[in-house]
């Protein structure tokens, strides 16, 4: 005897659609970040107009990504919101502590280069991802 498969509810399909939309806009924003970082030097030879358009595109896609995040969270259940809130709080704390220490390295002349945002963004992404995975396992 085969078990019957439960058809996804309207709410479940909406959450899945919102998550897919958020993933799409996040990936698109990451691509615009790469374009903004590498485009001026490798593609358009520091053309001011193209660089300005790349910044505007990055900001615009970033706003759409934030709106997709809000829509996803509004459709999420209380558990998913709790996981997200916990992950956000931990990520904010880690970023605050590490960024101030990172800047202090330059002030104390322990590093010879200017602190860059890239490593902090990577740290933020890794911290948030780990917190989401741990929270999902913990509460489910």
Question: Would you kindly provide a written description of the structure presented here, covering whatever features stand out?
Answer:
This protein has helices at residues 10-42, 48-75, 78-107, 117-139. The protein folds into two domains: 13-76; 77-140. It is flat, with a radius of gyration of 20 Å. The longest helix has 33 residues, at 10-42. The two termini are 28 Å apart. The protein is built from four helices and no strands. With 140 residues, it is mostly helical. The model has no long low-confidence stretch (mean pLDDT 91).
Structure keywords:
140 residues, mainly alpha, 2 domains, 4 helices
Produce the secondary structure layout:
Layout: H1 10-42, H2 48-75, H3 78-107, H4 117-139
Helix pairs in contact: 1-2, 3-4
Globular, elongated, flat, extended or rod-shaped: what is the shape?
flat
Distance between the termini: 28 Å
Q: Quickly count the domains.
A: 2
Number of extended strands? 0
Rg, rounded, reads 20 Å
Uncertain parts: none
Structural category is mainly alpha
Number of discrete helical segments = 4
Largest sheet: none
The share of residues in helices is over 70%
Which oligomeric state applies? single chain
SSE sequence, one letter per element? HHHH
* Average of pLDDT: 91
What's the short version?
With about 140 residues, this protein is mostly helical. The protein has helices spanning about 10-40, 50-75, 80-105, 115-140.
């Amino acid at each position: 005897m085969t078990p019957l498969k439960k058809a996804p509810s309207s709410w479940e399909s909406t959450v899945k659609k919102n998550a897919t939309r958020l993933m799409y806009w996040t990936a698109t924003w990451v691509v615009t970040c790469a374009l903004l970082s590498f485009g001026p030097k490798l593609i358009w030879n520091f053309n001011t107009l193209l660089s300005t358009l790349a910044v505007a595109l990055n900001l615009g896609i970033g706003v759409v990504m934030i709106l997709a995040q809000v829509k996803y969270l509004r459709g999420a259940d209380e558990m998913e919101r709790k996981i997200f809130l916990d992950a956000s709080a931990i990520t904010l704390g880690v970023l605050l502590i590490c960024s101030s220490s990172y800047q202090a390295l330059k002030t104390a002349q322990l590093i010879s280069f200017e602190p860059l945002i890239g490593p902090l963004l990577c740290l933020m992404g890794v911290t948030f991802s780990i917190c989401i995975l741990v929270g999902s396992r913990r509460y489910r």
